[in-house]
Amino acid sequence: MSHFRALDWNAVITTIGSTTAVVAILSFLAQTIIKHVLNRDVETHKADLKWEADRELANMKARADTALLEQKADFDREMEALKSELATRSARVERLREEVIHWANPILGSVMSLQRRLDVILKEEGYLALSPPIVEGHIKINWSATYEYYIISSVFYFLRSISVGFVYLRSD
Fold it and tell me: What gap in Å lies between CA 57 and CA 87, rounded to an integer?
C-alpha cells in the first residue's frame, strides 16, 4: 500500500471548498444573468403585448366609429325620409282643412236653405205654391211668392245642395 500516499486532507478540503465557492458564485452569477435576461424578455414581451393590444383596440375603435358613422348616416336618411313623409302628410291635412273651411259655409248654407224650404213646403202649406193656381185662393194671400218663383227657387235650392256636394266630392 505504498502506492497510496497519505492524503492531505487540508488540500482536499481547500480544493473542495474553493470549488464549491467558485461553483456557488458561478451559479449565483448565472442565476442573476438568467433572471435579468428573463425579466428583460418578460418586460419586452409585456411591452409588445401592450402595443399589440393598443393597436388592436385602436383598430376596433376605428371600425366601431366607422360602423357608428354609417349607422348614423342611415338613421339620418331615414329621419329625412320620415320628415319628408310627415311634411307631405301635413300638407295634405292642411289642404283638406282648407277645403273643408272653403266648402263648409256654402254646403251649410245650401243645406239650411233647402231644409227651410222643405219645412215651409211640408209644415206651412208651401206645397200649395208648387202647383199652378187652378183655383183662386190656393196660395196664401199674404205670400209675395208666385208659382213661377216658388217652383224655380225650390228647384234651385235642391240642385244647389246637390251640386255643392258633388263639387266637393270631385275636388278630392
Answer: 43
Does residue 34 form part of some domain?
A: yes
Q: Tell me, yes or no, whether 4 lies in a domain.
A: no
Grid coordinates belonging to 114 = 233647402
Distance set, CA 83 to CA 71, 91, 98 (Å): 18, 12, 22
The verdict on pTM exceeding 0.85 is no
**Considering its fold, how many domains does the chain have in total?**
1
Asked, for residue 78, whether it belongs to a domain, the answer is yes
| Sequence-ordered alpha helix ranges (H) in the chain | 9-123, 147-170
Here the contacts of 17-20 (C-beta below 8 Å, separation 24 or greater) are none
Q: What is the pLDDT of residues 111-121, one digit of tens each?
A: 888 889 889 88
Q: Cβ of 154: how many Cβ atoms within 10 Å?
A: 19
pLDDT tens, 52-104?
A: 999 999 999 999 999 999 999 999 999 999 999 999 999 999 988 887 777 77
Question: Distance between CA 82 and CA 5 in Å, rounded?
Answer: 112
Residue 77 structural domain = 9-170
> pLDDT digit string (tens) for 137-161?
445 556 677 778 888 888 888 888 8
Asked whether residue 1 is domain-assigned, the answer is no
